[in-house]
Amino acid sequence: MTQDPKRHIARHVVDLPKSGIRDFFAVVEKMPEAISLGIGEPDFVTPWRIREAAIFALERGKTSYTNNLGLIKLRQALSRYVRRKFELEYNPENEILVAVGVSEALDLAMRALLNPGDKVLYHQPCYVSYQPTAILCHAEPVPVATLPQNEFSLDPAALRAAWQPGCKMLLLNFPTNPTGGVVEHTRLEAIAAFAREKDLIVVTDEVYAELTFEGKHVSLASLPGMKERTVFLHGVSKAFAMTGFRIGYACAPAPIIEAMMKVHQYSMMCAPILSQEASIEAFTNGDDEVKRMKDAYQQRRDFVVRRFNEIGLPCHLPQATFYAFPRVDTTGLDERSFALTLLEKAKVAMVPGTAFGTAGRGFCRASFSTGYERLLEATERIDKFVNSLKPNDALLSAGKGVQEK
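and the corresponding C-alpha cells:
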C-alpha cells in the first residue's frame, strides 16, 4: 500500500495558509536585480556597541543555558527600560519573560491563555502571524477591519460591533505593521474601557513603539485598570536593528508569566545567551542609536509618501513604523496583480495588502527600511510603471509573467 505522508498531518495545520510575505518573496529571491520594498527589516547594521557586547560575552565563554525566564541582569534592564519608556512597573523576578523574538512571546501568551473554542478579537490589516497563531491554539479569530479614512486606527465602535459571546482575548499591534497606524489617546481609553467591560485579556504587541514619529506613544497597559489584564510584548528587532538576535520579551502579572514560562521551558527552554547579553547593552545604552535610525526612517517616510501620492497611488502619512501602505487598485489592478506585474516589469517588490488580511484589499505594503538611494530608484521605477499602464494592459498583465515563471 502506498503511503501518503500528507494524511498524517493535523487538520488545523493542513488548512493553514503559508505566509503571504514569504511566499511572495520566494519569487523575489530569484531576481537579484529587483529592489525590495518588502521585507520588514532595518537596513542598518546592529550598532557596534551592541555587537561588541555579544563578542565580549562569547570571549568570556558565555555559552550556556540561562534561566527559563532569561538572564536576571537582562530582566532587570528590561524592568528599568519599560519604566522609563512606557511608564510601566514590572518585577524582574517574576513578571518578565525573555523569549525567542516577539513571535515566540505572542505564541506563548496565546497558548498559555486560550482554550479550544475561545475567540480572539484582532484588527486588520495586521502582521501575518496573528490569525494563524490563534488557529494553532484551536481558537477562533474574529477580525475587526481598520479603514484608510481613519488612517488605519482602531475604531472602538467597530470593535464593539465585532464582539461576540466567547471572545476572551483582544490582540493589538499599535503602531501597526503593515499600515503604520496608531491609536490616539481618547480611542485608546475607549478600547481599554471596552476590554474591562467585556473582561477581555489583552495582548499588546508594541515592538514598533520607538519608531513613533509624531506625538508620544502610550501603552495600553499603562492605562488605569489595564496592567492586571494585559500582556505587554516588545523586543529588539525593529528599533535596535537586531532582527537576527531573536530577542523578544513579555511583561504581565506573575501568574500569566508563570503559565507562559511552562510552555516556553518545554518548547524552547531559553533564548540564546549571547543575544541576551547583547540586549542588555541595547536596552541600557542604545537610545542614541535608536534616535539616529528613527530620524533616517522619518526622512525616508516623508519622501516615499510624497512620491506615492505624486505618482497617483494615494497614501496616508504613517505616524510610526517603517511602512507605507499605498492604494494601488486605482491603477485598474488588484493588489496581487499590481505587485506581481510591478515586480516583473519594473523589478520592484512590494507586498500585496491581502497578505495582511482581507482588509488590506486594494493596497500594497512598501517598506522604507532600505537605503535612501534605493528608494529614489525604486520610486522612479514605480512612477514609470504606473504611467505605462493602460486599462487593457492592466487587465491583460494581471497575474501573468511572474506567476508563469
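(Above: one complete record from the training split.) The longest strand covers residues 119-124.
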